[in-house]
Amino acid sequence: MSDKPERFIDDEGLRLDGRRVDEIRPMKVEMGVLSRADGSCYLEWGNNKVLAAVYGPRELHPRRMQKPNEVLVRYKYNMASFSVEDRIRPGPSRRSTEISKVSGEAFEPVVMTQYYPGAVIDVFAEVLQADAGTRTAAINAATLALADAGIPMKGLVSACAVGKVDGQLVLDLNKPEDNYGQADLPVAMTQDGEITLLQMDGHLTPEELEEGLEMVKKGCQQILEIQREALVSRYGNEDEEGEEAE
Ligand code: UDP
Fold this sequence. Notes:
The chain has 246 residues and is an alpha+beta fold.
């Protein structure tokens, strides 16, 4: 029997988890949680729990894989077998391979790859508990883990999904909305609003797509604020220190 809810949005405009259509789930981040990694971040977003670890830049072996003029950024997304209701078979799957590829590419415009020719930066994103939106949660954690590792970047990357349920656009889909909704559109963008990842499942009209992208941009701006606060609380605010020194 399907556990599809009859309605996703009630007469008050509230979703099954009590959020408004344009509200993201509560997010909590902690940087520097792993002592062996060069950079790390633990992130909770609603019921998602994700750990990101960055190793490098370090020498890449075998050498034939080295890029002579830039660093290679490798991104590995993995769902722990215990992270979902039905146990996931350990090891790579088509889904995780695809998510790893597109998520790694989402960082290409921001990571200043020219600084470490021939080296590699490994980003591992481990989903410990999954509840819809894990690829976006992983990207949000990975950008902070990269910053924690001191990787030179032009800015941060923030990610969020928008979708459609009951004919209405909703920001940051929860599990029933993701499973039974009419569309799911995960997006990642730089802090300047340049889209670096866009995937889509389901159907949206061109007008809905345009409106959805506006919604997701606002969601990413809120996430960017959370990411900035995490950075400031770990490393302090350089502007303030500069002012004090004057
Ligand atoms: N999911 C699952 N088993 C899987 C893949 C996904 O139970 O093998 C669940 C998990 O909760 C995930 C959600 O379905 O967060 C949505 O998966 P999707 O492929 O849309 O990716 P996500 O939204 O997590 O980026």
